[in-house]
Design goal:
Elements (H helix, E strand, L loop, with lengths): L9 E7 L5 E7 L2 H11 L8 E7 L2 H15 L19 E5 L2 E5 L3 H13 L4 H15 L1
Antiparallel strand pairs: 1-2, 1-3, 4-5
């Protein structure tokens, strides 16, 4: 994964409202063009006030990250690949990495802290959890 300043092959972008509620997660190799398309086509576009962009070295990696983010983070306006569209806050988050499946049932306040930390660090909730698990594995 690359930083927003150092583009790779494709990016996962997140669009947020003024209160930092996640509106939409998308994937594109041409983010600016895709965002202009959303601006023209999507009735929710005026709500967008913030965005994050994470670049990946391959389009496949970006698509997998997008799918995971949509499932984990439940953006308000995504429909595709979103079995958790109507997910309640008490439902478990499921993370998969390197053959490991992690199910977390977070209290609402902790879920919100994780969501905000992911936004502030310009990453996904999944990436933060995976990073914590890997750090724990290395420590033991």
């Amino acid at each position: 994964m690359s930083t927003a300043e150092s583009p790779g092959a494709a990016a996962v972008y997140r669009l947020f409202d003024a209160d930092r509620n996640l509106l939409y997660v998308g994937c594109s190799g041409h983010v600016d063009a895709r965002l202009r398309q959303h601006e023209v086509e999507k009735p929710w576009w005026p709500d967008v006030q913030h965005r994050t962009i994470c670049w990946y070295d391959s389009h496949t990696d970006a698509l997998l990250a997008e799918k995971q983010a949509i499932c984990d983070e439940g953006p308000r306006h995504n429909r595709r690949d979103s079995p958790h569209q109507a997910r309640r806050r008490g439902d478990p988050l499921v993370y998969r990495t390197g053959g490991i499946e992690i199910k977390l049932r977070l209290p609402p306040d902790l879920y919100e802290k994780l969501r905000r930390a992911a936004f502030e660090q310009r990453t996904s909730m999944n990436a933060l959890v995976v990073e914590a698990v890997r750090a724990q594995q290395e420590a033991t």
